[in-house]
Amino acid sequence: MRRLLLPLVLLSAMFVGTPTASAYEPPVARQQVGLDAGWRFLRADAAGAEAPGFNDSAWTQVTVPHTWNAADGQDGGSNYYRGIGWYRKHFTPSAALAGKRLWLQFDGVNQVADVWVNGVRLGQHRGGFAAFRFDATSALKLGQDNVIAVKADNAAKPDIAPISADFTFFGGIYRNVRLTVVDPLGVRMGDYGGPGVYLRQRALSDASAQVEVTTKAWNNNTTVKRVKVRTVVADHAGVIVGETTAATRAVNAATGFDTVQTVTIPRPHRWQGKADPYLYRTSVEIIDADTNRVADVITEPLGLRTTAVDANTGFALNGRSVRLHGVNAHQDRLNHGWATTPAQQRQDFDLMDEMGVNAYRTAHYQQSELVYDLADQRGYVVWTEIPLVNEITDSAAFRANAQQQLLEMMRQNFNHPSIVFWGIGNEQKTSNTATNNTLRDLAAAVRAEDSGRHSTYASHIADLDPVSSHAELAAYNKYFGWYDNSSTGPGGWADRLHARDPARKIALSEYGAGGSVVQHEENPSPPVTTARWHPEEYQTLVHENSWAQLKTREFLWGTFVWNMFDFAVDSRSEGDTLGRNDKGLVTYDRAVRKDAFYLYKASWTDTPFVHLNSARWTQRTVATTTVRAYGTTDTVQLTLNGQAVGAPKPPAADHIYTWPITLRPGANTVTITGVRDGRAYTDTATWTLG
Questions:
Q1: Considering the entire predicted model, what is its pTM?
Q2: Of 7, 284, 575, 603, which sits most exposed with the smallest number of CB within 10 A?
Q3: Which one of 385, 427, 510, 544 is the catalytic residue?
């Protein structure tokens, strides 16, 4: 994977220098050649399209990331294209790359990808969310024209998770593609797409930290090589705080070798989540001992922290209790599907930052590397999971694919300090022997691969069903006030489950309600969830009621709103837009923050502001109404048509303010003003009666 950003240049030789007090800059040993531009695409099968001489002149020119479902995957009807699409690209690699190993990397193709170079089949990848690589060294012709051909297929496959799910499965090469150029003596490229360098924190105190560094490397030369492995840990300013060099060893030709080293870091600066997301950089240098040449370098983020989950006190980071104010989010957006840009992904984090989110669940699959990088840098606690959703196939092939997707997710993201929870699945509809055995084996794989993190699973069936007992942590998807109107909210449910099984570590992994920014209703009753009427005011009331109860249940190790953003479900026909799940707190295009967004902003941040609810409900038919607002100021005042309504209100514990008013015929100006530290904050709307 791409890790910490370094200059993308190829150096013919690098040599180990004497350490100095100046900032450490990792030698640059790899070249990354971007391959996103210049593709031709056909949304159909095409016999012989892998052949170099195939005529693709009539195909559509595209740039990846690309999906063929950007339009039909979001418009409703449950009829979006699920099948084969072909991509072809011509490119000429430099003759200067002779003697290097050349790997094609795809950051995401949904969901089966067959790859050829110059008619030579490199392999097939099965799974739509992990990155994968193929060694293209022998197939590429340096200094000449080459043809890459990719057959992508997003049709349902009984041996690939997810078999089904409540979101659109966008097809195509929807993440970046590149050629990675590495020395024959280098860190392994074929380890489930992982970096080949894995950091395990073995001890952490105020005095020191011990980090075990496992490096998987390979000598792809035709002769024996004498090799040294040097590991350097640098702080945020680049100053070396720890290093070690393994003894020189002889490695036979075409042979892999692993190196395990321990680095001690004095007076460690901890990664403290959003309060202080401090990152070190760990660089591993593979050195040809005969020439002292640095043949390869991998640089990985390092965040030093401890985590714990207690059945009574919830989640702790570095020994201190932290309430996880979480959201779920899919990776798509309006008219882009899954083919989003880095700027769009950063905007998503900007919106979450604004709202005060500190925990992020990547529902329901591995997301892009940039997502985890941003979480590291901004201090989010992350729950990431494999797409084991709804159902399984009771077959060896399906179980093997689930294990593959789990290992890919874990290896590729192993060094991200933000990741605390590995999710093994979501909402299995049936609790039978095959399902429970699959979950059992996945939980065991997490324990074997990464004992330093927690496994979890999100269930929506009976709370004490066996499906919730395989992972270390239990989590539940509960929609009180939406799909379930039998209860007044999540508080009673959480108390009863905690009392029945006090040792169970529980979270609320999903809760929420649909809300349309163009549908409004005073004092709304619960709508029919599958109908077209989803008034925004009802979504707001559900979240007000839910959060009032959740914030006092400290035994919950996390709560995660469903959903941060509206997203595409082509099979849905509800709310104001076909093909849309409208439970997001922000609209699908990220243009509108719904009223409930500001409830959480008021509850989860100390940012001074006021927000007027129902401001978009501009055309009114009833004179008597209740003004509702959120705020974090010292006082809050309502004015109607320039006249103050009552005295300024003092701060409300729940940040919710209400005033009954009577509108006059015609236009009415409604203004909320809050004052904090002598500064005024306002929000206003015009409501027209008549």
A1: 0.96
A2: 7
A3: 427
